[in-house]
Specification:
Number of strands: 7
Oligomer: single chain
Strand content: 15-25%
Order of helices and strands: HEEEHEHEHHEHHEH
Helix content: 25-40%
Largest sheet: 5 strands, mixed
Structural class: alpha/beta
Number of helices: 8
Shape: elongated
């Protein structure tokens, strides 16, 4: 919730600028450590302490938003997709520019128990049942994807990195004003 809510602007603008950092965002759908309140990533219809009858907001699609903002690398996996997740984290750490790996993770106490999944394993099975690979999702209608987790590598591209561009600009200005080498 924090990176998608309070820290959302920082996340989006770091991706837009393509700052050379790697973010591993753990998305457990809820503010799990402060009482189980609804978060920007809480699924539509889910129960939280602040939406006891059901959440009527659609969740923010973090990976899609960060990819659209301009990140160099974006991937999403669940904790049930361990090997793919490990490979994506390795790749994200080597990419020049902004990288995000969104990890859909369990919160059995605050989210799971309120949404009829009392054990962590039940949430893992839910992840597996509701995960759709990106290639397959591209062929599906939006209503077919409702309540699903689109997983995979959203973006892997080369883009100019912010500090590289800033250093080029500094060099150009110094050269223009004859300050180069001083």
């Amino acid at each position: 919730g924090d990176l998608a809510g309070i820290g959302g602007n920082h996340l989006i603008h770091a991706a837009r600028r393509n700052v050379d950092i790697t973010v591993i965002l753990v998305n457990n759908f809820i503010y799990g450590m402060t009482g189980g309140q609804v978060a920007p990533t809480t699924p539509f219809g889910a129960i939280t302490t602040t939406t006891p009858y059901r959440n009527i907001e659609h969740p923010l699609q973090i990976s899609e938003t960060v990819a659209a903002a301009g990140a160099s690398y974006v991937a999403r996996w669940t904790t049930a997709h361990v090997y793919q997740l490990i490979e994506s984290i390795k790749k994200a750490l080597t990419v020049k520019g902004f990288s995000l790996v969104e990890v859909i993770s369990q919160c059995p106490v605050q989210f799971g128990r309120r949404n009829r999944m009392k054990e962590p394993a039940e949430m893992l099975r839910w992840f597996l049942r509701n995960s759709v690979p990106l290639a397959k999702a591209k062929k599906m209608k939006p209503e077919e994807l409702e309540g699903k987790f689109v997983i995979g590598e959203f973006v892997n591209r080369e883009r100019p990195e912010f500090t590289d561009e800033l250093n080029k600009l500094i060099d150009e200005v110094q050269e223009h004003f004859g300050l180069k080498g001083e």
